Amino acid sequence: MGKTLKNHQEFWTNARSLSAAFSATLLLGVSLVVNFYAGIYATMKASNAVTDIVLDNIRVYDVTNIFVYGPFFLWAFVLLLCLYRPNRIPFVLKSVALFILVRSVFITLTHIGPSIDMLNVDYATNAIHDFTFGGDLFFSAHTGLPFLMALVFAKNKWLLWLFTATSIFFGVIVLMGHMHYSIDVLAAFFITYTIFTLAKYFFKNDWQLFDNEMNPE
Questions:
Q1: Contact 180, 119 (CB under 8 A)
Q2: Per-domain boundaries in the chain
C-alpha cells in the first residue's frame, strides 16, 4: 500500500504525468462524443439483416445481464490495475480512445441491419444505452476491448490469459444473443491488434511509461 501511495504522489505531482493524464482524458471524452453520434447515424441508416453461418444455426439466448453488466466488471478491474500503478493510466485511456475512434469510423461505413431475432435489450433503461445503439455492429466492442487489454497487459501472463478469455467469452455471449454477426466478432481480434500497434506508435512516450511498469511482479 505504501508503494502504491508513493507512486500516486510521484505521478500526480509530476507535470509531465499530469499532462499525459489530462490529454488522455480529453481524447477519451472526444472519442465517446464521436462514438455517440456515429452510433446514432449507423442505427438510423441500418438496412436489412443478412444471413450468418453462426446465427442461422443457434437459437437466441437471454444473455441480457452479462451483455449489460459484464463490461462494468471488466472496467472496474482495469481501473483497479491502473490505480495500483497510475503510470498505466495515460496509455490505457489513449489506447481505448483510439479503439473507440477507429470503431466509430467503421460503423458509419456499411449499414447492415441487426439480426431480425436479436435479443431485445431495453436500451432505454439499461446502463449502456449511450454506448450501444443496435445498428453499430462492425466490429464488436464487447470482443475487441477486452482483447485490447490483453495486448496492453500482455507482459503479465495471468492478465494476458484472463483478458483473452474474457474477450472470447463476450464474443460468444453477443453471438448467443444474436447481437452481432460472426464477422463482427471474428474481425474484432484482427482490427484490435492493428489498433494496439497504432497506439504504441502514436503514443510512444505513454507506452514507454506503461511498459516500464509491466515488469513481472
A1: no
A2: 2-213
